[in-house]
Amino acid sequence: MSDATTAEIAQTPATNWRDHLAWGDVVAFRFPHSERDDSYRPKVRPCAVLDVVSFAGRRFATLAYGTTADSKANQDYETRVTRPEALAAIGLDKPTRFVGSRRITVSLNNPGFSLGECGTPMLGQMIGADRERLNAVRARLFAEADMAAEHHAERRRELRDRRKADRAPLPPVVELRRPRASAAPATTGCCATPSTSGSRGSGRRIARTIPRPASARSRPRRRRSSKLRSLSSGSCRRKTGTRPRPGPSRVRKRGRRRATPAPPIAAAICCRG
Q: Basic and acidic residues bias located where (predicted)?
């Protein structure tokens, strides 16, 4: 439909306008007003077609709002048609602004399309610089839509990864514990009660006192006389008045040497329980 003339548009059968509708065309549509209630019936106004897509076997059109009011708002997304030949190409007689930031996507079967005498809502088609300006607005809107879709997709991926992390099992925690050291009970006789402190696994540690052999038992200790003690210390004189030899003196006693008592022997025996 982009290469059709205004006369061909007027002669298009009413049953075929949905098949020939394309971007750059201008149609008559009852654009809804956001500030009015449902009982208000919007008036018919010219709308520029920004895009036509097919979804699930049905065709949809994205329409840009058209108005004759002169305003400086939304200038980056608008297409102004002011030249007489451009107005004649779209079937209008007054300068019109098509605002791309105010748009709506509807089905081609929407009752908001106002059909003319020929049974079609199509008024005409943009030409020249106006068509190029509309195409630039379309490119900007599509780029913003792609960036928004990518942002939402990345946000959904982050939420999905966060949910997976929340549902994932926690890593195992290994805790090493040592048994408490308990005091060993008092022993009775030659053997002690088994102690479990420090024992682990299959063995227990038992402390026992082994008695000394008979040969190592201590003999009665003989008392040294005061005379010998005084001689060994060198701090006093003999009763005879003789002076002791200088230096440390050592008095040996005849007979068998006294055996030094051996200390008790303790052993640790590891028994397998």
A: 149-167
What digits encode the pLDDT tens for the residues 166-190?
777 777 777 787 777 765 555 555 5
Q: What are the pLDDT digits (tens) for 123-133? A: 999 999 999 99
Three-class SS of the chain: CCCCCHHHHHCCCCCCHHHHCCCCEEEEEECCCCCCCCCCCCCEEEEEEEEEEEECCEEEEEEEEEECCCCCCCHHHEEEECCHHHHHHCCCCCCEEEEEEEEEEEECCCCCECCCCCCCCEEEECCHHHHHHHHHHHHHHHHHHHHHHHHHHHHHHHHHHHHHHHHCCCCCCCCCCCCCCCCCCCCECCECCCECCCCCCCEEEEEEEECCCHHHCCCCCCCCCHHHHHHHHCCCCCCCCCCCCCCCCCCCCCCCCCCCCCCCEEEEEEEEC
